[in-house]
Amino acid sequence: MSDTPRFRHAIPMLVRFGDLDSMGHVNNAKYATYAEHARIQYVRDVCGWNGTWDNEGMILAKITIDFKQPVLYGDNVMVYTRVSRLGSKSFTMQHQLTVQRGEDAPQLAATMETVMVAYAYAQQVSIPVPTAWRERILAYEPTTPDS
What we know:
By secondary structure, this protein is of the alpha+beta class.
């Protein structure tokens, strides 16, 4: 069962024919792409990121995916995203991917967790999570622990 009420940020995901594997369901590697798309949209919407990595950015340190059921071509897919931990140089994002087939209720298809590190691409070093990002995340996700 989905826990989507804890997730304020959601985006629909289009399942493309090219996302399918030879078994006719979404290839497991595409789930990471779906999480990537969701986290980039989250940073744009919540943190106000302008789409460039000139000053500050983030880099993926870890991803964990738990598959619950297959996603098929034509499924209505939503990816829910939240920041569950906010550290000094990194933060953890949780994602829930749900599918809806026809008139059925949405069902949980996967849970994903990513650890993101704040990163200065020009200097190739990790940096503290930008203050503006921290403030906006905490305002948007008031239950997120700030450590």
